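In this supplementary section we document a worked example of the pipeline. Step one takes a protein sequence of length 318 as its only input; no multiple sequence alignment statistics are reported here. Step two produces a three-dimensional model, which step three serialises into structure tokens for compact storage. The input and output of this example are shown verbatim.
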Amino acid sequence: MTGFARVAVLGAGTMGHALALVHALAGCTVRLQDVRPEALERARELIAAALATLCEAGEVAAEAAARTPDRIAPVGSLAAAVADADLVIETVVEDREVKREVYAAIARAAPAEAILASNTSYLDVFPLMPEALGPRAVIAHWYTPPYILDLVDLVPGPSTEPSVLDRLETFYRAIGKRPVRFARLLAGYVANRLQAAMTAEIFRLLDEEGIAPEVIDESIRHGLGLRLLLQGQLRKADFTGLELVARALANRSYTPPPPRGRSPTLDRLLAEGRTGVLAGRGFYDYGGRPAEELFRERDRKLLALKRAWRAIEEGRGT
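The serialised model returned by step three reads:
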């Protein structure tokens, strides 16, 4: 028993299709809703590709993978998607008015006991909801691709019943995810707030110091990444020695850049149509390789890293 037999996922984009897959793999029956037929067709293709990658990596058995698509039903109607749902996952565009309309529709059509979980990255969505949804509404924020990355930020609203968060936390832990629970909404949660600080400094290095993208990425991957994966930042500080950490704070060797809200480097890339992997070029040129191939390569490498890390955590990699 999964705890949520019937799940509705609203929005079939980057996160929506992936969260449909996460919950279908957990044994839930999923209705994936989007008003755009082309988005639902694209979601079907992306789910199939992700399942193939998970199978190749040994993360999902072939028999389970074969059954999983049958648990995901694409639908165009929000009302039909949520009609008998135990859990409604909202992944629509980060626009307050769009979300307000979606929440009003959920309140009209979903069962009174259904839990509503928003995947919002940065909005305070609770004031946008009808009052009746408040006691069973939470933020459940995931990181892409959520069928590989396990972190889930769980945040209650002002009137959320504690049992709702308890139930979601228990469910996600049972299916192998790593939920972290907040007492209240914290802008950016933890991971996104730290990522935002790093991103601000990265764009200062690009714009003001002329540091090449590959130098920045190599510094992160080979200077920071391995230690942060193993220890996090604060355990790493313990190994460094807190006296040294205190001296570094006192010396103020680093001053955060002032918020600017834009980057000339980023503006130039966007003006040139270099929007990232889907366009074939961003900070890097991907040599005409299909986006699907690049995403699958990323996923395979992430899964290999995850397997190695799992072995280390279990004491088999030492």
